[in-house]
Amino acid sequence: MIKTEVTIGKLKLKNPVLVASGTFGYGDELIGIVDINKLGGIVTKSLTLKPKLGNPPPRIVETPCGMLNSIGLANIGVDKFINEKLPILKNFDTAIIVNIAAKRIEDYCEIIKRLEDTEGISAYEINISCPNVKEGGLEFGTNLEMTRQIVNATRKITDKTLIIKLTPNVTRISEFAKVCKEEGADAVSLINTIVGMAIDIKTRKPKISTITGGLSGPAIKPIALAKVFEVFQNVDIPIIGIGGITTWEDAIEFMIAGAKAIQVGTANFIDPSTPLQIISGLVKYCEENKVEDINEIVGSIIVESLPH
C-alpha cells in the first residue's frame, strides 16, 4: 500500500492533489460530477469581505496552450460563504482551504476573524496578487515589505495552516518565499497567473475588457516549474506547486522539483475529473518505481551542478 498522505503545517492531506482557487467554484457545484472525498483538498474561489460582481465581460479568452482571465474576484462574500457553502463543504472527507483576497490588510484580517468562528476549515490560502489601495494600487505580492506586513498580520490571528500564494510577476520569487517563512507562514503556493494579453486583429481591440489578464494553463508550466525549483533551492518552506498541471506526469515533475503538494487549475475546466486521474497516476508511478511513501519524491531532483 502506497503512503500518499502529506503534512503541511497542521494541514494533513490524504494525498498531495488539490484543486486550485477559482477553478472548482466553492466545491459544491461539482457534487455528483467528481468524487470530492477522493481529493486531497479543495481551495475555494477567492473570498472577499463583501460580495463582488467582478469585471465586465469579456473576461475569459482562450489562448494557445492556455487561457487569459480577468474575472475580478467575483464572489459571494465571506458571510454568504459561511452561511450557505460551508455547511455543505464540511460534510466532505477532504481538506477545505479558503482562499482570501482583499485590498487592505485590515480586510484580510477581518475575513479570517469571521472564518475562525466556524467549523470545517483546514487552512487559509492568502492571495497577495491584489492591489493595495493604500499604496496606489501596487500589488501586495510584488513588494517585499507589503508581503511581510500581510503575512505578519494574518499569522497573528490564526493558528490554522497559513499558505501564501505568490505571484510570478517578480524578479526573485524566492526572496518573497523567504519573507513568508520569516513571518511565520506554514507554506507557499506558486505560481499565480502571469500577466498576459490578447488582441482581436479585426477590431484591433484587446480581447478582454481589462486589456490584460492572468495567463494560466500548460503554457506557463515550464515557468512555474522553474519558480518552484528556485524556492526549493533557497528557502526551507513547504511548497504547493501550481501552473499548467494537466497530467500525473506534470504533478511528478513538480514534486521532484520540490513541491510537497500540487494544485490542478485550468485543466478542471476541460475535464473536472483530471485531479482524480492524477491521483491514480501518482499511485501507479510509485508502485512501478518502488516508492513506498510519496514524500520520497519531493525534492528528489538530480542535478550535475547547480547554476550560480
Automatic annotation (TrEMBL):
Q: According to its UniProt record, which residues of this chain constitute the active site? A: C130
Q: Which UniProt keywords apply?
A: Cytoplasm, Flavoprotein, FMN, Oxidoreductase, Pyrimidine biosynthesis
Q: What range(s) does the Dihydroorotate dehydrogenase catalytic domain occupy?
A: 5-283
Metabolic or biological pathway = Pyrimidine metabolism; UMP biosynthesis via de novo pathway
The transmembrane segments are none
Provide the residue positions that the database annotates as binding substrate. K45, N69, S70, I71, G72, L73, N127, N192, T193
- Cofactor binding summary note: Binds 1 FMN per subunit.
In its UniProt record, which GO terms are filed under biological process? 'de novo' pyrimidine nucleobase biosynthetic process; 'de novo' UMP biosynthetic process
Q: Which residues bind FMN?
A: S21, K45, S46, N99, N127, K165, I191, G217, G243, G244, G265, T266
Q: What is its EC number?
A: 1.3.-.-
Where does the record place it? Cytoplasm
One GO molecular function term of this record is: dihydroorotate dehydrogenase activity
| GO cellular component assignments | cytoplasm
Q: Which reaction(s) does its UniProt entry say it catalyses?
A: (S)-dihydroorotate + A = orotate + AH2
Cofactor(s) it depends on: FMN
- Entries under PANTHER family matching the protein: DIHYDROOROTATE DEHYDROGENASE (FUMARATE), DIHYDROOROTATE DEHYDROGENASE (QUINONE), MITOCHONDRIAL-RELATED
What does the function comment of this entry state?
Answer: Catalyzes the conversion of dihydroorotate to orotate.
Q: What is the similarity comment for this entry?
A: Belongs to the dihydroorotate dehydrogenase family. Type 1 subfamily.
- The identity of this protein, by name, is Dihydroorotate dehydrogenase
High-level lineage: Bacteria, Pseudomonadati, Candidatus Kryptoniota, Candidatus Kryptonium
Q: Gene name?
A: pyrD
